Amino acid sequence: MSLRKSILRTTTVVCLAACIGVCVAGGFYFARYGTPALPAAQAAQAEPAGEAPLPGTVHFAPHAPQLSSIEVMTVRQVVLPVSEPLFGRVAYDENRTTRISSPVAGRITRLGAEVGDTVAAGRVLATLDAPDLGTAQADLQKARADEDRKKRAFDRARLLFDAEVMAGKDYEGAVADVQQASAETRRALLRLQNLHAGAAPDGRFALRTAMAGIVTERQLNPGQEVRPDLPAPLFVISDLDHLWIIVDASEAVASRIGEGTRVIVESDAYPDARFSATVEKVAPVLDPVTRRIQVRCAVRNVDRKLKPEMYARVSFLPDDDRSKVFALPNSSLYAEGVATFIFVETKPGTFMKRRVSVVRTGGDRSYIAEGLSAGERVVTEGAFLLNAEVAGDAH
Fold it and tell me: How far, in Å, CA of 268 to CA of 311, rounded?
């Protein structure tokens, strides 16, 4: 009985040792060589085969974190400019701007307009208590009274001269006196007309605008003393629906543009807006200091987005529209050797690498002649990230 138990115990120990050995050997195999391959039929059922991606294509899941670093834009064809954009300055249209100063010295008693007000021609901008105006009015009254007196004296002298009672010398003196008095009256009247005050008897001067527009500057306050020789105008009034863009162009650019050349104006204040303008004047001489030629462009500013003294980027367009290209930010492009590439979004989350042909590169954008079609969506931010993904897939 004891012999049988001993045999059973020995058999159990041997079986356990064999099982342990098999498990250890299997674990060592899996750790070293991985899971054994399944048969082809079972593998096909376990993992459905996906469509193989095209070379140079990157695909991200809908909520992949990489998509937050990628920006795209829809491209459209534009006319290739004469040169890369030039910097310009927005200015008043001086043909539609008036700077108003007071022609007489005086003290401001009332203001009739504020900055930003729209005023009509003839609007009173300010009222002054002007002693010089009172003097001019008194001079006119004195001149008229003197002229009236000398006219009556002339009438008497003519009667006496016709009756041969007055000498010819005295009659000629009466004629000269009337002419002198009439001239003095005209001088005093013209002085009041130059002051735009008419014949107002109260000695107050009304400062008026001769042009309609918007008050853009005001350099006076109630009670302030003003005089004609102040260095700055008291009011600036301009029609802000029409502005100028002043550009200093190089000789090479100026030689390819002229009056009537079409212009595209862009501003950092409105990145997505493009304003149409026209070259109005090209300076006939070169600035000897800057070695540039000043070009003046006229732009309609009906929505009044552009403001005087803003900086702008100006692109001069050729006379014909045959040179159609695509304008892309420089961040869209990257070079590999002598070739230039971009990424195009073929569908949401999928981007394809594509070679393009660049005809001109500027400070912030480049112009593409071949490799794109209108309406395609191009990556503008994140192209280097996508290129890294493509390079990683290739390895």
Answer: 8
Q: Which domains does the chain have, with CATH numbers?
A: 57-78+323-394 (2.40.420.20), 86-93+239-316 (2.40.30.170), 98-236 (2.40.50.100)
Average pLDDT over residues 159-186: 86
C-alpha 21, offset from chain centre: 82
| Other beta carbons within 10 Å of 348 | 10
What size, in residues, is the chain? 395
> Three-state DSSP class for 108?
strand
- CA–centroid distance for 15 within its chain: 90
Q: Which long-range contacts (CB under 8 A, 24 or more apart) does 226-232 make?
A: 226/102, 226/105, 226/106, 226/107, 226/108, 226/128, 227/102, 227/105, 228/101, 228/102, 228/103, 228/104, 228/105, 230/101, 230/102
Residue holding tokens 């999928």?
350
Whole-angstrom Cα distance, residue 235 to residue 214?
Answer: 10
The two tokens of residue 393 are 């897939």
Q: Which of 101-105, 184-188, 276-280, 358-362 has the lowest mean pLDDT?
A: 358-362
Question: Do 295 and 254 contact (CB within 8 A), yes or no?
Answer: yes
Residues 6 or more apart from 135 whose CB is under 8 A from it? none
CB atoms inside a 10 Å sphere around CB 229? 7
Type of residue numbered 87: F
